[in-house]
Fold this protein.
Amino acid sequence: MPVVVGIDPGNSGAIAFLDTDNCTVRIYDMPTFEFITTKKRVTIDPYAIVTFMQQYDISHVYMEEVFSSPQMGVVSSFNFGEGKGMIKGIVAAIGVPITQVKPARWKKDMKVPADKRAAVMRASQLFPGAAPAFKGPRGGIYDGRAEAALLALYGALELGCAPTTPVTLIQE
């Protein structure tokens, strides 16, 4: 079963596993753990990512090609880059091809607005069966989940193996 993975990197990102044969998607919040240096920090959990990835026969990974922003502090920028590097290393180690896609490119092709709420709405349109996964409590949103699912669909379309029927969300 070809599974295309979409990754929105970062501590508040997500990983989506789109099974294009069975028309299902599984979406996981980016696994993280806390540690303390001079203050409490959060970082990506590489062992959990490996565990997720080993469950599937992955054909390709599509990851958003993002960079730190000037608003981030030095430590945050370093941690963001370290997390992105861990993900790339994991994907390489398991022998799966990875394509990094600039947000402007995939969002334009998928007709996804830059606004996070509008991105969640677009993901809900394209994945109506998974829409509950994109909405948080008290009106909140999970834009990382929405973007990971959209990246997986973008990848499936680019690879020519997009689902042929509506996609069902599998929750674990």
